[in-house]
Amino acid sequence: MTSTKQEALATLFSQAKVIPVLTIERREDAVPLAKALVAGGVYSLEVTLRTPVAIEAAKAIMAEVPDAIVGIGTILNQDDLARVEALGARFGISPGVTPELLKAAAGSSLPFAPGIATASELMQALAHGFDLVKFFPAESSGGTKALRGLAGPFPNVRFCPTGGIGEDNAATWLAEPNVVAVGGSWLCPPAEVRSNNWAGITAMCERALKSLKAA
Ligand code: 3PG
Fold this sequence. Notes:
This protein has 215 residues and is an alpha/beta fold. The chain is 45% helix and 15% strand. Helix 4 links the parallel strand 3 and strand 4. The longest helix has 17 residues. Bound molecules: 3-phosphoglyceric acid.
């Protein structure tokens, strides 16, 4: 049975359609990057815990970009989960599952999408009440063909595929009936961030949302 927090996450993801995966190297890039994404119509952001400044960057976005809906990704264990809860993030995402992480996430009020790539991992997620999951790494785990395979035994599961998704294939993924949103790093290329090309990032977001709406 699906829980209220999973339903809230499903609503958030399906409204977002695209969730940029942000790996923020410099604290000072966080706010202008988030502002650029929001200006381009992309409100829900996944800040990954992959850099030393990730938590500080997420805090800054939450404080200074009120329209941004800040989630945290790359949650690998209970300690990460606890840090994310303390931060007040709106949602959490992990690339995979462990029994310990699933148990901790099930006991938390944080809306959470565990990462799965196989039927067995999905069964573990379901056993803890998670019927909205990240399919990762989506392209190299078999792409839409693999996802259709999973839809057979798991018709009620909703997916956010991530990994190898970009401008050229986002619409194909979103056309799958069990896909609520797609995630990816393509909306914030490191070179554009490094050169502070915020207008370029806004333009890319606008273009992506326009083409996804038209698809
Ligand atoms: C993730 O963590 O979701 C992926 O690293 C993003 O994958 P991508 O860089 O292929 O979009």
